[in-house]
Design goal:
Blueprint: H1 3-13, E1 17-23, E2 29-34, H2 43-55, E3 64-67, H3 72-83, E4 87-90, E5 103-104, E6 112-120, H4 124-135, E7 139-148, H5 153-159, E8 163-169, H6 170-179, H7 185-197, H8 217-229, E9 233-236, H9 242-252, E10 258-261, H10 271-284, E11 287-294, H11 298-306, H12 312-315, E12 318-321, H13 327-336, E13 341-344, H14 357-368, E14 376-378, E15 389-392, H15 411-416, E16 422-425, H16 427-430, H17 435-454
Helix pairs in contact: 1-2, 2-3, 6-7, 9-10, 11-13
The protein binds 6-sulfanyluridine-5'-phosphate (S5P).
């Protein structure tokens, strides 16, 4: 029996591939399940897998092998032992003490890494892992995978420029196990049908060149709205009465992707106001973005988000936070309100902001460890990785500042030079004689600037 065929049968015997009715993390029900964690219990299999995977990369043009926790780690270790290529590990979560490194091991900027993964489905986890390696100056071209579930992930990674080599496709496994008599015809048919129906597990709308592929569900909603409404505009509705806020939301609603509010400046704030705002948000399809800038210790930030007069967590799609209190506050917020999208302020727009390069670097390190909860960040020119959105306030078409520290730039500058995804515009719109027409004007300038960047 060939080593490949033997491996397939062993996968079946060990329960690495199982058939039945399984609910996947995405909620989808699947007739098969793949879990490679048991592999390390069979050193002989691990060694065979390592050999076979390394044989797929005869060029061996990588300096490091990178394992992604947890299932792929023993395999990456075996491949490192086999090939003599040093191992690094990409942490899932960063430890809250010690060196706080995202990547463990010895490496230096400019080296290239082969990334090892157990199973590839949508490609999402790899698309989240690789930017962290790139941020460290590592180059990634090659990806080694044991099983390709054939649900679009491989094609997505290849489109992003990676070379993906898989040991087995799920189709090959099914056929092999069927021929070996481990799988009956009915189950085989069921799996093939499932594969046919789920050829593409969507993780994000297809991105155009220069566009980001954000991972958070709120970010994806925002990107959907941007595509459908053709708007990169968020209006900052910094008005102080419910009447003004509702009038403004109704006027600019058709032109915006989100309405940013400061609930605490509204003199007659009430649950009724929120109800009407939500209705407008639904009618015009925009998100509600509370600019609360939570900055306290985790415990306090959580009660500020969930209690008080405003009960922000009950209605806001997104909320801004500062990361000055450290990682614990972000962890507490995401646990307390997992539905809300967190938007950390990494860099402020003011002329003499204290968010200098050192702070930004530290803040981004925290942010990157919590991309499961973070929609994107507020920043000016500080770089933001492609799986997060960049929101840029301090945009005005007519003036350069406000004499209170605010600094304004044009849409052309923030899209062209800063690579922003959404501009946040307050006074430029709500102080204009005709906010609806002005919002339309900002929207168009933003759209053209974003298009020019892509061309
Ligand atoms: O760095 C920042 C971050 C934010 S969230 N600079 C900002 O101006 N903001 C907010 O964006 C600010 O609180 C205000 O609500 C809006 C900008 O308003 P404008 O009137 O200056 O356009």
């Amino acid at each position: 029996m060939s080593e490949r065929r033997d491996l397939m049968e062993q996968f079946f015997e060990l329960g690495i591939v199982r058939f039945g009715d399984f609910r996947l993390k995405s909620g989808i029900r699947s007739p098969f399940y793949v879990d490679l964690r048991a592999i390390a219990s069979r050193p002989d299999l691990l060694a065979a897998l390592s050999r076979q995977l390394l044989a797929r990369f005869p060029e061996k043009d990588f300096d490091l092998i990178c394992g992604v926790p947890y299932a792929a780690l023993p395999l990456a270790t075996a491949m490192s032992l086999d090939s003599g290529v040093p191992l690094i590990m990409k942490r899932k979560e960063t430890k809250a003490y010690g060196t706080k490194k995202l990547i463990e091991g010895i490496y230096h900027s400019g080296q290239s890494a082969l990334v090892v993964e157990d199973v590839i489905t949508s490609g999402k986890s790899l698309l989240e892992t690789i930017p962290a390696l790139k941020e460290e100056g590592l180059q990634v071209r090659d990806i080694a995978v044991v099983i390709d579930r054939q649900q679009g992930g491989r094609a997505r990674l290849e489109r992003a420029g990676y070379r993906v080599r898989a040991l087995f496709t799920i189709r090959q496994l099914i056929d092999g196990l069927y021929e070996a008599g481990k799988l009956d015809a009915a189950m085989r048919e069921k799996v093939l049908q499932f594969l046919e129906q789920h050829r593409q597990v969507d993780i994000a709308p297809a991105a155009r060149p220069g566009e980001r592929m954000p991972a958070h569900p709120v970010a994806r909603r925002l990107v959907d709205i941007r595509r459908e409404k053709q708007t990169h505009l968020i209006c900052s509705a910094d008005v102080t009465t419910a009447h003004e806020l509702l009038a403004l939301a109704a006027a600019v609603g058709p032109h915006i992707a989100a309405l940013k509010v400061h609930a605490d400046i509204i003199e007659d704030f009430s649950p009724a106001l929120i109800k009407r705002l939500r209705a407008l948000a639904q009618d015009h399809r925009f998100l509600l973005f509370e600019d609360r800038k939570l900055a306290d210790i985790g415990h306090t930030a959580v009660i500020q988000l969930t209690k008080g007069v405003h009960h922000i967590a009950d209605w806001a799609d997104m909320v801004t936070v500062h990361v000055t209190a450290g990682e614990g506050s972000i962890v507490a917020l995401k646990r307390a309100a997992p539905e809300i999208g967190i938007v950390p302020i990494v860099q402020m727009s003011t002329a003499d902001t204290l968010t200098d390069a050192h702070y930004r670097q530290r803040a981004m390190e925290v942010v990157l460890r919590h991309t499961d909860a973070v929609v994107g960040v507020v920043a000016q020119d500080h770089p933001v990785p492609p799986h997060l959105l960049k929101f840029t306030p301090g945009v005005h078409l007519d003036v350069k500042g406000d004499k209170k520290g605010q600094r304004y730039h044009t849409p052309e500058k923030v899209f062209g030079e800063y690579g922003t995804d959404f501009i946040i515009v307050g006074r430029g719109i709500y102080r204009a004689a005709d906010p609806a027409a002005t919002a339309a004007r900002y929207r168009e300038r933003a759209r053209q600037a974003a298009t020019a960047r892509r061309e």
